[in-house]
Amino acid sequence: MKTENTDFIIGRHPAVMALKADQEINKVFVQAGLKADAIAEIIKLAKQKRLVISTVPKTKLDQLTDHQNHQGVALAVAAYHYADVDDLFANAARKNEDPFFLILDELEDPHNLGSIIRTADAAGVHGIIIPRRRAVGLTSVVAKTSTGALEHVPVARVTNLVQTVKELKNRGVWLFGTDMKGRDYRTWDAHGAVALVIGNEGKGISSLLKKNCDEMLTIPMVGHVQSLNASVAAGLLIYQGFNSRHPL
Q1: What average pLDDT does this structure show over 113-139?
Q2: At the fourth CATH level, which superfamily is domain 85-245?
Q3: C-alpha dist (Å) from residue 87 to 2, 77, 97, 153
């Protein structure tokens, strides 16, 4: 496992999920005067792990979390853990399922990444691959937006996406990209080992990565705006994959 710089997990539900998982936590900050059941649960879990609990005024939490909606709690974590690509395959093997991966090509918005992780968890995606450069990583905003799903979906961060894609293909994974010109996504059958590539919010999938995809999928649209938010598009495609793997 690989680690990155210190950050904060913020929000009540993400904090509970992190405390119940094996996330390495340095300190728990709780807003003074709050009596909510969720806060009591967080304190109880923190005490069970023998963590340092610091009761602080709201202004201190605002400062620590850059004035985000922390809901009265923040966990100082040593690092977010990144998986290796092998960990993603192992996750699928543990479930006795063919791999279903997401590859996010230079996604920049942490809210989009958090939402995609949340959808991926709900649909049984075995892991997500993101690039090390020119893309958002695992931050407190991502963790909060994922509402705890980050603790259950392994995320691998790689130096070269194209090289990683070639490695996946050598291991029997079929690559499906997203593009304005492609097969209607509603006909996509995601049986077998597959990886779905979601492009950058503005530029889409890079040309070199697109050349390495086995097939392109498109979401038909009849409105005046011929584009969708990255997390919305990813959600539609992920659930088409889920539907084809789990028919009624």
Answers
A1: 93
A2: SPOUT methyltransferase, trefoil knot domain (3.40.1280.10)
A3: 11, 22, 14, 11
The burial class, CB within 10 Å (0-12 / 13-18 / 19+), for 144 is buried
User: What does the pLDDT look like over 220-239, one tens digit per residue?
Assistant: 988 777 678 889 999 999 99
Cβ atoms of 86 and 201 within 8 Å: the answer is no
Predicted structure pTM score: 0.74
Computed on alpha carbons and rounded to an integer, the radius of gyration of the chain in Å comes to 19
Structure tokens at 3: 């680690």
Distance CA 226, CA 219 (A): 10
The reply to whether CATH 3.30.1330.30 applies to domain 8-77 is yes
Q: CA 176 to CA 189: how far, in whole Å?
A: 11
pLDDT, tens digit, 9 for 90 and up, residues 71-120: 999 998 855 678 999 999 999 999 999 999 999 998 989 899 999 999 99
Give the residues across from 76 on adjacent strands: 8, 27
